[in-house]
Amino acid sequence: MRKMNKLSGSRYSAQLREVSRSASKAPGARSHEHQLEQAIGHEVRTLRKKHGMTVTELAATAELSPGMLSKIENGLTSPSLSTLQALGNALNVSVMALMRRHEQRHEATFVPAGQGLHIKRRGTRSGHDYQLLGHAVSNRVGVEPYHITLDKKSEVYPSFQHEGTEFIHVISGRMVYRHGLDTFDMMPGDSLFFDAQAPHGPEELLDTPIKFLCIIAYESAEDNND
């Protein structure tokens, strides 16, 4: 069985103390504490099922009652540090791993109309206007959404190739878009989802200006270094 890391235990204790202090000061603090309880419960249930254990089996291994384990999994109680240590040992994970979901940052990026970050990509030299609408790398997957504009002066470039998966959705205009050996006559409302390693890009600009959303997803560098 894995022993609880002392630093992990102290971090958890500090977090519980902070929650307790907040509970006496802020009306919404109880909801924050409940979020921690739910996050722990969700992680315990997920790991239990991953190991193919029943509630009774995990409870017996962790020396808890099935009723107490059920309350923990449903976020109905705040487990003590010793209880979390017992669960961590039974599931072969650290105490902090049981709070992983609570510690994850959940971010959002708001970009007002027309204020996306203009960046340079290979298509920029061909008159393709790229506005980056956000960027995120989480769980070893990078995601980049773009708003792309093509006008009558833009050059066709059906030879883009890069790692990952791409999704495009036409907002206005009309174009013939190539992917590998296939071509698609795309109009407003049309979408295309494809492997970006094959040559792709606009082959004919039939009705400009053409505006479309492009979302690229790819493995992050962190994953490639494993």
Describe the structure.
- This protein is of the alpha+beta class.
- The protein has two domains: 98 residues, 434 Repressor (Amino-terminal Domain); 108 residues, Jelly Rolls.
- The protein is 33% helix and 29% strand.
- The chain contains seven helices and eight strands, in the order H-H-H-H-H-H-E-E-E-E-E-E-E-E-H.
- Strands 1, 2, 3, 4, 5, 6, 7 and 8 form an eight-stranded antiparallel β-sheet that branches.
- The two termini are 26 Å apart.
- The relative contact order is 0.12.
Task: Please describe the structure with a list of short key phrases separated by commas or semicolons.
29% strand; 8 strands; Jelly Rolls; 434 Repressor (Amino-terminal Domain); alpha+beta; 226 residues; 7 helices
Question: In short, what is this structure?
Answer:
With 226 residues, the chain is α+β, with helices and mostly antiparallel strands. The chain has seven helices and eight strands; from the N terminus they run H-H-H-H-H-H-E-E-E-E-E-E-E-E-H.
Tally of structural domains: 2
CATH class of the largest domain: Mainly Beta
Q: How does the helix and strand content classify structurally?
A: alpha+beta
Largest sheet: 8 strands, antiparallel
Terminal CA distance reads 26 Å
Q: How many distinct helices? A: 7
Low-confidence stretches: 1-8, 22-29, 222-226
Percent strand equals 25-35%
Radius of gyration in whole Å, from Cα? 25 Å
Q: Which topology of the largest domain does CATH recognise?
A: Jelly Rolls
Helical fraction equals 25-40%
At CATH's second level, what is the architecture of the largest domain? Sandwich
Mean pLDDT: 79
CATH homology superfamily name of the largest domain: Jelly Rolls
Number of strands: 8
Order of helices and strands: HHHHHHEEEEEEEEH
